[in-house]
Amino acid sequence: MDDIDSAILSHLQRDGRLTNRELARLVGVAPSTCLERVRALRARGVITGYHAAVQPRMLGRSLQALVFARLRPLSREVISGFEAYLAQLPEVVSVFVVSGDDDVVVHVAVPDIEQLHAFLMDRVSARREVVSFRSSVIYQQTGTRVLTPVNGRHGHE
Amino acid sequence: MDDIDSAILSHLQRDGRLTNRELARLVGVAPSTCLERVRALRARGVITGYHAAVQPRMLGRSLQALVFARLRPLSREVISGFEAYLAQLPEVVSVFVVSGDDDVVVHVAVPDIEQLHAFLMDRVSARREVVSFRSSVIYQQTGTRVLTPVNGRHGHE
DNA sequence: GGTGAAATCTTCCGCTC
DNA sequence: GAGCGGAAGATTTCACC
């Protein structure tokens, strides 16, 4: 994980469809070298995949929300069961299992407020392990394009 | 936005580096047709980009957390200012501006609990517009790979 | 929406440092 | 061990049907 790897990661997080040739040019190594580094990053699990990003609004999902739920009993089985259940629902973007007042935070994308209500009632409230929940509408979201390696020891240098 | 577009989106969300040839084969159209459809999806803003996904742990960011903050005064300027400030910090993964008890939810990735504490004190608590905040450690996260188009009218069919 | 051909890219392998 | 250059095969991409 040197400066070249960092540069590769930075560019590929910004544009995952860069050609190997262009990427090599950007980071200043030969295409063959670049290809090997990218493969090594993938093999080491630093890069986990490449994904097209879509705009939920363009898919008819104009309303996004965070749903905070408390589960009981709070066992490993209940948590992973609920998580697996959520992950398979089309409304769910991602699920966080967290510490604190709430046990899980669910990011959902639905067409409108009615569908959000339906989701909360039929998909969340209907579950026996959910003892309470609340939701927050997302007015705006900004994601950081690039996650940079932290200075210091980590992974295998 | 027909079944072929849906299939294209589904495949590209799963693997953003699929070759156009392979994608065409998967969705059952000729490569040139497929290329044009993908370009149209990009041009219409359905696909906003392609990104390599990285594992925060492999970048030395082994601890992730959600930070919930309340801002005052709650004006457009204060919100967008705080959001812009956060977006540029390397610890920040994404920022949600939300309704409810809290005004913003910040997803952060840091090396350890000490760095989380430092982030909360030096980057969050230090800001004048933040009147209160709390944080939750993320024990586990699962993201849905694929966001599907919703049935019904949306965008331009 | 499909076909074919030129331009470009990927990828392997031997060579060098 | 890491990086480079070239050549074979695959892919992209465009004009045209």
Automatic annotation (TrEMBL), chains A, B:
Entry keyword set: DNA-binding, Transcription, Transcription regulation
Record carries keyword Thylakoid: no
InterPro entries on file: ArsR-like_HTH, AsnC-type_HTH_dom, Dimeric_a/b-barrel, Tscrpt_reg_AsnC-like, Tscrpt_reg_AsnC/Lrp_C, WH-like_DNA-bd_sf, WH_DNA-bd_sf
SMART domains (UniProt xref): HTH_ASNC
Domain of life: Bacteria
HTH asnC-type domain sequence ranges: 1-62
Protein's name in the database: Lrp/AsnC family transcriptional regulator
Native source species: Streptomyces bluensis
